[in-house]
Amino acid sequence: MAEPIQLTLTVNGAERTLTVHPFARLLDVLREQLGLTGTKEGCGEGECGACSVLLDGRVVNSCLVPAAQAQGAAVVTVEGLARDGELSPVQSAFLTHNAAQCGFCTPGMLVAATDLLSRCAHPGEPEVRAGLAGNLCRCTGYVKIVDAVREAAGPGGEAR
Amino acid sequence: MIGASSIRKEGRAKVLGTACYTDDMDLPGALHGATVRSRCARGVLQGISYGPGIPWEEFVIVTAADIPGVNRVASVVDDQPFLVGLGEPISHPEQPVLLLAHPDRHLLERARQAVRLEVAELPPVLDLEASLELAQVIYGSDNLLKQIRIAKGDPEPVWAGTTVIAGEYRTGAQEQLYLEPNAMLAEVDGAGQVTVWGSLQCPYYVHGALKQLFGLDDRQVRVVAMEMGGGFGGKEDYPSLSAGHAALLAHKSGRPVRLIYDREEDMAATTKRHPSRTRIRCGFDGAGLLQALEVDFVLDGGAFTTLSPVVLSRGAIHAGGVYRCPNVRIHARAVATNTPPPGAFRGFGAPQSLFAIERHLDVCAARLGLDPVELRRRNFLRPGDTMATGQGVREDLDLAGLMDRALAELDYHGKRAAFARASPDDPVQRGVGFSVFMHGCGFTGSGEAHMASVAGVEGLADGTISVLAASTEMGQGKNTVFAQIVAEALALPLEMVEVAPVDTHRVPNSGPTVASRSTMMVGRILEDAASGLKQALVQQGFLRLPYTPGEFAAAVRRAREALGAIRCYGQFHANPRSAWDDVHYRGDAYPDYSWACYATAVAVDTVTYEVAVEDFVAVQEVGRVVNPVMAAGQIQGGVAQGIGWGLWEEVTMKQGRMANNQMTNYLIPTSADLPPIRTFFLEQPSAGGPGGAKGIGELPMDGPAPALLNAVQGALRATLGTLRLDEVPMTPDRLLERCEEASHG
Amino acid sequence: MRGYLPDYDLRRPGSLAEALELLAREPGVWTPLAGGTDLMVLYNAGRLQATRLLDLSALAELRGIREEPAGLSFGALTSFTELRECEAVHRQFPNLVRSARATGALAIQNRGTLGGNISNASPAADTPPSLLAYGAELELVSSAGRRWLPYAAFHLGYKRLDLAPGELLARIRVPWPQGRGFHFFRKVGTRQAQAIAKVCLAGYGRIEAGALAEFRIGLGSLAPVPARARSVEAVLAGARLGALPIAAAQAALAADISPIDDIRASAHYRSVVARNVLGQMLRELDKLPG
Question: Which residue of A2, A47, A134 is in closest CB contact with C10?
Answer without folding.
Answer: A2
